[in-house]
Amino acid sequence: TVEKLQKKGLVNLKIKKFIKHFSPTNPEALDEMIKEKQRLVKEILPRLSEQYTAKEKKISVNIFEGVEGMKTLFSDLIKTCIKKKEEVILIGAGLKTPNYMKHAFPHYIKQMNKMKWRLVEPDTPSIRERIKEWDMEHSCRFLPEKYLSPMGIVAFADRTIIMLLKEEPRLIEIRGSEYANAFKNYFEIVWKSAKK
Q1: 46-105 per-position pLDDT tens digit
Q2: Beta strands in 38-143 (DSSP E)
């Protein structure tokens, strides 16, 4: 409202014969107000960043549901791993993710080929075919088909993602180095026992 603009110093008020008349102040006042807000943001940004980083070091659990939640997590995974040059490890749910993401998945595959991946998947002809199609044979090992499951686990950086892939996908993201490192150690045992 005009009253709010007046309080911010962007409008002048004159009263003539009991009638309020408003007129704009110098437009440079608006520019100065914006610059002042930018100065304040620059001033508090380092403290906010510190608080955010401190929060990141704590353990947090987030739940993502549906295809959009899956896309959000995969986009974050790709961005983080390319930026930090992190390896992604996965004990799979039979490569069901492409079935959910359909048209978006080729984009993710292009990005994923820029990263270091290691996968352990159940040994089925269709999974072997997909691994070959994606040119990921060098980074995949296999367990007997009886271990095919609707659940997969991914770990990268300080994160572990438990993927529940039956009907509507549900993904549980655990942020905390202790948990990610524990899964990475477990993965190494499985990796050594899996076959090429």
Answers
A1: 887 777 666 556 788 999 988 888 888 888 888 888 888 888 888 887 677 777 777 667
A2: 60-65, 87-91, 116-122, 140-143
Helix pair 66-84, 105-112: axis angle to 10 deg: 20
Burial of 47 (0-12, 13-18, 19+ CB in 10 A): exposed
Phi, psi at 14, each rounded to 5°: -130, 140
* C-alpha Rg value of the chain to the nearest Å: 26
Residues 6 or more apart whose Cβ sits within 8 Å of residue 60: 174, 175, 176
Compute the residue count for the chain: 196
Residues 93-127: pLDDT tens digits?
767 777 777 766 777 777 777 778 898 998 989 88
Residue 42: count of CB within 10 angstroms of its CB:
9
CA 184 to chain centre: 19
- Residue 64 is which amino acid? F
Geometric angle at alpha carbon 145, from 125 and 135, rounded to 5°: 40
Return the higher-pLDDT residue of 89 and 13: 89
Beta-bridge partners for 107:
none
Determine the distance from the C-alpha atom of residue 90 to the mean position of all C-alpha atoms in its chain, rounded to a whole number: 16
Tokens at 48, concatenated? 């906010």
Q: Which residue has the tokens 């992190």?
A: 86
